[in-house]
Amino acid sequence: MGETTQGSLTPESIRELQDRAVAEAASATATPADLEAVRVRYLGRKGLLREMYSQLGVVAPEQRPIIGQLLNAARQTIEQALQGRPAAPAAPSRPAFDFTLPGRKLPRGRLHPINDTIEAIKDIFKRLGFEVAFGPEVELDYYNFEALNIPADHPSRDSFDTFFLHDDVLLRSQTSTVQIRTMENRRPPIRVIAPGKVYRPDTVDATHGFLFHQLEGLVVDEGVTMADLKYVLHEFARGLYGPDVKMRFRPSFFPFTEPSVEVDVSCFVCGGKGCSVCKRAGWIEILGAGMVDPNVFRYVGYDSERYTGFAFGMGVERVLMRRHGINDMRLLLENDLRFLRQF
Ligand code: PHE
Fold first, then answer.
1. What is the CA(67)–ligand 1 centre distance, in A?
2. Do residues 125 and 241 share a domain?
3. Domain that holds residue 46
4. What three-state secondary structure class fits 258?
5. CA–CA gap between residue 282 and residue 278 (Å, rounded)
6. Which of these three, 37, 64, 83, is where a domain ends?
7. Residue 191 phi, psi dihedral angles, 5° rounding
8. Cβ(212) to ligand 1 under 6 A?
9. Does a structural domain hold residue 104?
10. Are residues 210 and 295 in the same domain?
11. Residues 227 and 321 occupy one common structural domain
12. Closest-lying ligand 1 atom to the alpha carbon of residue 313
């Protein structure tokens, strides 16, 4: 009994109908209107599934619960397939990707002029056998002052205005801190440079900021003399400003070097004749330097009878501004790409 009608209401036929409906609902090009049509065709009042339900009465009674369950499951599956589809905008009929289009250009980054200048300086010193060292920007008073022969209450602290965070924790106001940290961690021979940020509570103007960059240098070995200092700094100046640059050493004072010097180079704009860049002087100051004070060696436990050394420190922004003819260092921190792209 029922064999004639069961041909259209078997687990296979239900499955087949369900698969067809799901495939149509999942079609990549289906529009919302298409989906509605699928719903009407299968789930509507006169839909194909409803028609199958109506044949349930002629199914053998013992099969009826099974077939009924299969029909319910098929209805749910089809409903889900229709719902799971977001109401996609009408999908275009053309291929999703046009292989004939030219590729998109990726924007190319570049180094910030400050880092670019640090890299240029590093290159010169690396050729002279220097390694690169780093130290923390949040620093202890000990490394920023005390071990650099600047005891508490000493007047020379005034020349290093400093941001303090706690009693003896501060934002380093010079990269000379890395001299001490390097000597603490190793024995001579030492030949390092240390670039990095330093902080000072200066009023911001064209040539001052509360944050700027320094590049420190330190050489310690047996028999190091001021002639070595002059040679290294001259090589540096020639590397940066060209083979004809001249150098001038002026006596100066730093608590951690003795003797101390300030170093000028002949103005690379006018060649020393005097112009607006060098303010008619013909010379431009680029760094401070000197022979490591024996007191500093005492703090790191070096024998100052055996070892001598020299140190130098330069302001990176200063070198950069002179290299590129920039007259206001605030431009470097404004992040204006129209400015930065020029370098
Ligand atoms: N640390 C000094 C400054 O900030 C510069 C310096 C470094 C001088 C090393 C001598 C030796 O002014």
1. 91
2. yes
3. 11-83
4. strand
5. 6
6. 83
7. -145, 90
8. no
9. no
10. yes
11. yes
12. 7
Cβ of 145 closer than 6 Å to ligand 1, yes or no, is no
The whole-number mean pLDDT for each consecutive block of 10 residues of the chain, a chain of 343 residues, reads: 54 86 78 83 86 85 86 85 66 73 88 96 97 97 96 77 90 97 97 97 87 97 97 94 91 96 86 80 91 98 97 94 85 92 89
Domain contains 4:
no
Pocket perturbation via mutation, ligand 1, pick of 150, 160, 174 by most ligand atoms within 8 A of CB: 174
Statement: the pTM of the whole predicted model exceeds 0.90: no
146 CA distance to ligand 1 centroid (A)? 14
Please work out whether the CB of residue 289 comes within 6 Å of at least one atom of ligand 1: yes
Do 224 and 290 have their domain in common?
yes
Whether 313 lines ligand 1, by a CB cut-off of 6 Å, is: yes
Q: Is the CB of 288 under 6 A from ligand 1?
A: yes
Give the CATH number of the domain where residue 326 resides.
3.30.930.10
Both 306 and 187 in one domain: the answer is yes
Average pLDDT, the chain: 88
Determine the pLDDT at residue 27: 78
Sheet strands (E) in 172-306: 190-199, 211-221, 247-254, 257-266, 283-292
Question: Does the beta carbon of 310 lie inside 6 Å of ligand 1?
Answer: no
Q: How far apart, in Å, are the Cα atoms of 23 and each of 8, 13, 208, 215?
A: 20, 15, 70, 68
Same domain, 219 and 266: yes
- 100, part of any domain: no
Residues 168 and 47 grouped into a single domain: no
Total residue count of the chain as it appears in this document: 343
The b-or-e profile of 127-147 (16+ CB within 10 A means b, else e) is: eeebeebebeeebbbebbbbb
Q: Is position 3 within any domain?
A: no
pLDDT of residue 4: 41
DSSP one-letter code for 249: E
The count of domains in the chain is 2
Looking at the fold, whether 79 and 118 belong to one and the same domain comes out as no
